[in-house]
Amino acid sequence: GDFKSEDKTESVSIIAAVTAAVGSDHKATDPWEKFRIPFVLALNAGSSIGIVTANKVVFEYCHFKYGTLLTFIHFVFTWVGLEVARRCGLFEYKPVDFKKMLPLCIAFCGFVVLTNLSLVYNTVGFYQVMKVLTTPLLVVIQTLFYGETFSTPIKLSLGLTCVGVLITTLTDSQANFFGTMIAASALLITCMYQIWVGTKQKELDCNGYQLLYWQAPISAVMLIPIIPVFDNVFEITEMPPPYTIFAIVFSSCLAFLVNLSI
What we know:
Elements: H1 14-21, H2 33-61, H3 67-87, H4 98-121, H5 124-132, H6 134-146, H7 152-170, H8 177-204, H9 208-223, H10 227-230, H11 242-261
Helix pairs in contact: 2-11, 3-4, 3-9, 3-11, 4-8, 4-9, 5-7, 6-8
């Protein structure tokens, strides 16, 4: 999302929340902001940790190694969850320009697909370590291309984070080139997606839920022709066992919560 607190909507990015918490120069005008930030941080942290474990169970223990297909299922669940939320009055329906949504949906697909593929080809430890770099990279992008400024303590702490990631990567005996390239690609597109979300919310004059309400189904449709390219779905000849279905549904529910709190 965007770093400026006065532009925050109901979808708050981790980096925006962290920046506000450590004393960014931007002052929040929303009286509920101080409650929203801890809630979104807790929701994102809990669901993000949970979905990593859930997805690894789906891939490794349930032998459902179809990362792109799982992403498609996640998008469908996210849209269904948002439709229920809309009907319950949690947010208002708002039409958006389809053409303006396409770039964001492409980034959304890339962000989630590459994240899932990173989990397929890397260990959970390496996957988590690479995700730690999201905040430092966001700061670099915002500084170089968006003119944002950050205090020296923030820069130093993020620099130490990068050093720690480098040491961990070099000493990880299970790290591999292909998995590392996927993780690095996922990292870059994740950062760009978080920035574009805030930009599109202002451009289309809608909040995070209204934006995601359109993102999820459009992205799901865009994935349909891509699924056979990345996943050998033709080898699925029968319905998965109940425990696999349960794991997929549980993972999809967590994905819905992660998408809400990005």
